Amino acid sequence: NAKNLASANLGQKIRFYRQTAGMTQKELGSACNVNESTIRNYELGNRYPDSDTIFEIANAIGNFSICPCNS
Fold it and tell me: What pTM does this model have?
């Protein structure tokens, strides 16, 4: 939930904002030119996106607060 975002990791923030934007993992992956499984792995913390991909994700979900420079 939104009040826990301050302590959330990047994957948790991606999931929260993706869901808030009403997007599926597949839709977000398509918007960022990565596989659905890649988005799932980012959200689970199994993989970490590079800075370009973080920017693409933020742009797709319309929320740049996930960018590390905004933490």
Answer: 0.85
